[in-house]
Amino acid sequence: MGWSIPIGTIKGTVVRIHITFLLLLLWIGSAHYTQGGWAAATEGVVFIALLFLCVLLHEFGHVLTARRYGIRTPDITLLPIGGVARLERLPEKPSQELLVALAGPAVNVVIAALLYLALGGFPSSASAEPQNAGVGVLERLASANLFLALFNLIPAFPMDGGRVLRAILASRLGYGRGTQLAATVGQAVAFALGLLGLFGNPLLLFIALFVYLGAASESHAVQMREVSRGVIVSDAMITHFESLSPASVLEDAVRCLLQTTQHEFPVVDGSGRLRGVLTRDDMIRALRDRGPATPVLEVMRADIPVIDRRRNLEEALRLMQENRLPAVGVNDNDGRLVGLVTPENVGEMMMVHAARPDRRMAS
Ligand SMILES: [Zn+2]
User: Fold this and answer.
1) pLDDT tens, 7-38?
2) Which residue among 17, 53, 230, 267 sits deepest, i.e. has the most Cβ atoms within 10 Å of its Cβ?
3) 3-state percent helix, strand, coil for the chain, nearest multiple of 5
4) Which segments within the chain are labelled E, that is strand?
């Protein structure tokens, strides 16, 4: 995610703050300042900062629960609309996803309960003294946490509630069907929110769009996974492709690019081993910055894994998604490159699968 500033690493997860969040702090500060001077400005900024600390704790609820199921969590980004914890993959079992999803809102409920306890009971008693700024902030923080818990439990992707709903549906209907149904419910919720937004709060329109897009992308990711589950790599890989040699320069690569429809070019040495992959984007960038005589070895991506052709396609897909790879190489028994799997290639597999739903693609 661009425009994010890393502020530290907590338990192996990098925490980033998006630049727009800092702008929000500035804006809140100045808006409060014009109304009530420095005291009000400080109070406004402290409140928002504390609120985001609560959002961070919420995300760590997800992160620490996911980690119990062996899922790595490289980073958390704090945005003005909340936090996003990146999980490298989805939990395997619906019951695990249910717990990972619920852990976030549960953190907010616990924080609210602790704050109300510290304030000595429910709001009415404390709100009688608005003069006391400290109490005012803590009390607002408590109700904001309750709001966060409820808001996140709206049953629509990408909210936690969407995942809760999917987990419940998936345990009865299977993962693919459960996600489709949850995505449909989510889009209906988005539509209702959008309608409310038209007549009331315009912020709801923004949230509705966010929810609508979230539902669509989640359903796409899960469909890809479902299709790839029963297929072995050699049934789906690309076998007709042009390769470059370690001695090739960018000029050779450009010729290959124009002569074929390929976008990813494997660099293969004399014994048939994959050394890396040169993508079209990297090729064009390097051509502009370094010229046509640049060796491809210097600009290719060298971190491309190879897997055996008998392996499950799902494994290749997971490797690509977790590490944002343009391709995965496929080897024969002697360690020679015999094929490539790319995201586009898996996408075509899905189209074929969708066109003949009666047939199983599994061998
Ligand atoms: Zn959450």
Assistant:
1) 888 888 889 888 888 888 888 888 888 887 88
2) 267
3) 60, 15, 25
4) 4-10, 13-18, 75-79, 82-86, 264-268, 274-279, 306-308, 328-331, 337-341
How many A from CA of 160 to the centre of ligand 1?
A: 5
In whole angstroms, what is the distance from residue 255 CA to residue 253 CA? 5
The pLDDT tens digits of the residues spanning 55-73 come to 999 999 999 999 998 888 8
Which residues, in sequence order, are CB contacts of 106 under 8 Å at separation 6+? 61, 149
Sheet of strand 4-10, all strands in order from the earlier edge strand to the far edge: 4-10, 13-18, 75-79, 82-86
CB atoms within 10 A of CB 103: 20
3-state secondary structure of 76: strand
pLDDT above 80 (res 296): yes
C-alpha 77: how far from chain center: 10
Q: Are 274 and 300 in contact, with CB atoms under 8 Å apart? A: no
Place of tokens 């490539």: 340
| CA 269 / ligand 1 centre spacing (Å) | 47
| CA–CA distance, 299 with 273 (Å, rounded to integer) | 18
Q: What is the mean pLDDT of the chain?
A: 83
Residue 59 bears catalytic tag:
yes
pLDDT digits over 146-190, tens only?
A: 988 988 898 887 788 988 998 999 888 887 788 888 888 888 888
Catalytic residue among 43, 59, 139, 314: 59
Please give the distance, rounded to the nearest whole angstrom, from the Cα atom of residue 193 to the centre of ligand 1: 19
Task: Provide the angle, in degrees to the nearest 10, between the axes of the packed helices 19-68 and 94-118.
Answer: 120
Instruction: Measure 180 CA to ligand 1 centroid, in angstroms.
Output: 20
In the reported structure, the alpha carbon of residue 159 is separated from the centroid of ligand 1 by a whole-number distance in angstroms of: 7
- Rounded to the nearest whole angstrom, what is the distance from the C-alpha of residue 58 to the centroid of ligand 1? 6
Q: What is the pTM of this model?
A: 0.65
- Locate 124 and state its tokens: 């009415």
301 vs 133, residue with greater confidence: 301
Residues with Cβ within 5 Å of ion ligand 1? 104, 160
